[in-house]
Amino acid sequence: xRRTENAExxxxxxxxxxxxxxxxxxxxxxxxxxxxDPTRLREAILAAATAEFLAKGxxxxxxxxxxxxxxANKRMIYLHYGSKPDLHRAVLDRELRRLRSAxxxxxxxxxxxxxxxxLFTALFACYADHAVLLTRLAQDWPDALDGxxxxxxxxxxxxxxxxxxxxxxxxxxxxxxxxxxxxxAAMALATSAVPQDLAPGQRVKxxxxxxxxxxxxxxxxxxxx
Length: 225
Hints:
Blueprint: H1 2-14, H2 27-35, H3 38-60, H4 63-70, H5 74-81, H6 84-104, H7 112-129, H8 131-140, H9 142-148, H10 155-170, H11 179-191, H12 200-223
Helix pairs in contact: 3-4, 3-6, 3-8, 7-10, 7-11, 7-12, 8-9, 10-11, 11-12
């Protein structure tokens, strides 16, 4: 009997305890690890909430589903984010920051005519990549989109404004068309299902032709006065 006990004790002593800071690999302790790390827990909640809100919208999203996906509970969600509206706002704020970073990464070169083409080709692709977010914003938080295209809200608006200004100085564009209007139009066309028979590349060409026709036609009209 003693030999059996000693063998069992020896076996347990041979298994080294996990080192400090190591993440246990078994599920129950992994959940505890996340739960007791406030930073990781907040990120887990925010990631789960992002998936839930973007997939179902504000009305369809459920805090219980977010808690389950984050391996948390409702109490912890309310402790870290206050309420469902506050969590929704945190999700959209972070997604808008990501969109702003994507816009800021767009680089264009060349004279105004070529630069505006490059900008809106890249911008159209950027908005198409964020179509789910932009659609949810239009449905759940339309004021955020109004602020996005307002002065100082969008890096793309600032870039478009500089290019249009250079085009006006060169006599090829008219200032009557605002950068805010152009970016809002690009956003609407990139995320719209109409016309459904146009591929993304065709939509870019359509928008480009509309923008250039408007900018140049008005510039020519101004010259004739």
